[in-house]
Every structure is written in C-alpha cells, then in structure tokens.
## 1
Amino acid sequence: MFKKILILRLSAIGDTIHTLPLLNALKKKYPGCKTGWIVEDKAALFIQNHPCVDKCYVIPKKKWKNSKNKLKNIKEFFEIIREINNEHYDIVIDTQQLFKSAIFLPFLNIKRKITLTGGREFSYLFSNEFIKESHALFDTGYHVVKRNMEFAKYLGADPENIEFKLAQPDKETIDSVDKKLTGLTPDKKVIVISPATTWKNKHWDEKCWIQVLEFLKNRANIIFTGTKQDIQLIERISEGLPNKIILAGKTNLTELAEIFRRADVVISPDSGSAHIAWAVEKPFVITVFTATSALRNAPFGRNCASFYPEIDCYPCMKRKCRRKKEKNICCTAVSPEKIVNILKNILHYD
C-alpha cells in the first residue's frame, strides 16, 4: 500500500523513544516500505542507527541555535527539505503536533500529511488528513505510546504491537563500555541510578535517594549516569558509598543504552534515561514520578514499576510548583521504603 513513509518527531529523547513502537508496527505491516524520520540532533543517535529507519534527517538544532549566521541556517534547512522531497514519500505523519514540527509540512511535497486532531499552536493548519483523537494531546491519564499507536491503527497496523527494537551496539560501543565498567564485583547485582532530569521539580528528594543507597550499600555494584550538570547532585547523594562508578557526562546515548543492557535494575525519575532503559528491554525499570503523570509517561508491561505521589495536586505537569504552602511536596511524597521493598522482591535481598 505504501512505498515510503516519513515520520516527523523532532524531540525530546523520551518522546522520540515513545514513537518507536509506531515505526516498528508500520514496518511489520508493510515490510517492503521504506521509512524516513525527521529528528533533532539530541535524539538522533537512536534514529540514525535504528534497524527500521532507512533515511534519517537530522535537524541540527543546537548548532543553529548557537550560530550567528542565520542565512546559513536557512540554507541548511532547505537543503534538508530538498533531500526529503527527492525521496517522494507517500505520507508524512506528524506525531509531535506542535508548531515546531508542523512548520516543516508546507515545504514537503508529500500528498498526504497526516496527524491527529487536537494539535497545539495551530499545527493542525499544516496537515490535510486528520485522525479523530480518542484523548487530548496532553491527557495525563492516557499513555503517549498508546496515542502514537492510533496512527498505526489508522494505517492498518497492529496498535497492540509495542516494540522498540533499538539498534544493537557496535564493537566500539561495547569496548568503550567494557572499559568504563572495569572494577565491577562479579557476584553482585548491577544497579544503575539516573537521578536527574531537565525539570528540577521532577527530581526525587536527595534524602530519599540517600536512604535507598544506604540500603544498597555493600549489596550491589552501583553506577550513576547523567550529564556533567548532574555530577554535584550525584556526589552529594553517594558520599561515602563504596562500589560505585560515576559515569555522568562520560557517555553518549548509545553507550548509555549499552550500560542499561548490562544492568539488573535502573532507577530514575521521569526522564529520557528511564525511557531508554525501558526501550532496551533488559533491566527492571523503577521510575519515581513527582510532577508529571505516570499514566501518561511511565514504562509499562513487563519488568517495570512506577511510583507517584498520592496528593491532591498530582499530576500538575508544571515546571515550577504553584502551591502556596508545602512547595514541591511531590518530590518527597514517594517514600524510599517503597523502592527498598521492590528491590528486596526483585533482587531477593533480605
């Protein structure tokens, strides 16, 4: 039915991961179809090397943002548009449904420009084929993966086929991770802690992390991942902790995925790390939610558990707390005992 399909999902890492099941479902339904994907540079590694992606068009957002030569940026934008149009795609699917993604559509010589109803920022003006949405774009009670799979159902693919199929690591990645993980104690489980994300109020309280790490001390190999900006946080919560490896700021995304493949458990707030760990389909993933919705964003299915606050303002979905009293109460509302108890169950600790 389709010879070529283009997916438009620029960012972020977690949302890009959440769109992969749509790609895989379409590829399974139409195995001879060629697929393309427009993505921003931050999440590009997962798309460029994905076994179901034939063409990846990377939008160098970071470079363009820092460039003073705006005319050069515009020229590069139209070079990407020209490359896409030369492929003659049958359809383009805008899964992001915001202005930043929809702005590409007027320049694409593609007959069918498909999206769900309910797009934000006038994005719907740029599509010409609409699927009636079952839930709003930011419905906190409906998972974003399931929303993306409504495109699969509309196009004849199986909406229940939730697969990620990340690319397997190459030798360079494996060798690099081998070196980074030198010193692990062979007879102990491997626990990866990714304690930070981009929103401060999505962070679990440091005292909560410390209590969990106190339980894990001497029981497991503990690896910390994140960015350079997370190092101070990691050092505070891990002070005096033996058997730890701090890799924050020392891995790229493919190395991070390989580290998760070697873990028994990954613990994280609602972050790109949690979604990558879910996508590699190996470790048990524990996510701690604060301001954002577990029903909308959390890993689901096998090998995962999510915890969220039982408070009146949850989920607020706001970057800054709007409570007048007990500010950021959600950051302490999930008790460390809940995480310790599930660790005892899945790792058979006393």
Note: The longest strand covers residues 34-40.
## 2
Amino acid sequence: MIEQFDLSERHACGLVGLSRDSYRNPPVLDETTVALSTAIIDIAQVRRRFGYRRIHDLLRPEFPNVNHKRLYRLYSVAKLAVRKRKKAKRPASERVPLQIARVVNEVWSMDFVSDSLASGRRIKCLTVADDFSHECVDLATDFGISGQYVTRLLDQAAIFRG
C-alpha cells in the first residue's frame, strides 16, 4: 500500500490494523520452532491417528519447555488433523409392532425409576404393570437393582400370578 498508493507508513498500518513495530520487524522463525514443526510433521506422518495432545506427550522429553498451546498452533499451521471415524451403519432391522393385550397377564410392561435421597444416595424402583388391567404386578425398591435381581422378581411374579 505504501508503494502502490503512496501512503505514509503510519496511515497504511492504521488502515490495515497492523502495528508499525510489527511492520518494521517481521517475525523470524528460530531454530527450535523449525525443529519442533518438523518433528510434529514426522510423527504425524508415521502415526496418523495421533492428535496434537499425544504428539505433545511424545515430544515432551525432547522439547521440555514447549507447552501444548504452542504445539497446537504449529500443528494447525501444518494443516494436520485427525479425521473422525465414521460410525458403522448397521442394517435396519424390521420393527415388530407392540402386542396389544386382550386378557389379564398376557402382556406386562416394566420400567426403572430413580431418585436421590437427601443424603445424596441414589434409590431405584422397578415397576411391573399389567397392560390390560393397568394393575401393578410388582414394585421393587432398592439402592441397586441387578439383572439377576430383575429376573428373580419376574420369575416370582410369574409363579404368583400364573
């Protein structure tokens, strides 16, 4: 701008939003920055699934005074990035419509409900309901309900209800 439009240094730097000191003293790459950026690129080429954080962990013994922010800046300047893996798409299974209950004890539904006590401890409730009569078949409350506990409760309810 200074040469092409015959502007003063102060005016041109003000238009561009650049400090005059930055214009007079452009940044110079030092040896450690060049060595660090080449090391980053070398590791990224060999280990493609490593992001900048893992590369930083690998380079920490060689460059102890380099923090992760500087390494990320050089990583970004080199246009390195770990591509996100695409989630494997599974074939869509056929949906089966819900069975509508026509008599008592034909279809049961169950649900887990949890809440916390004033002490902060979690309490869990398992409710089993009959879909035809909307009657509560079983209600279990405990601090932890395992899968074996659920099967035992359902077996007991089936024996009791028929």
Note: The longest helix spans residues 31-46.
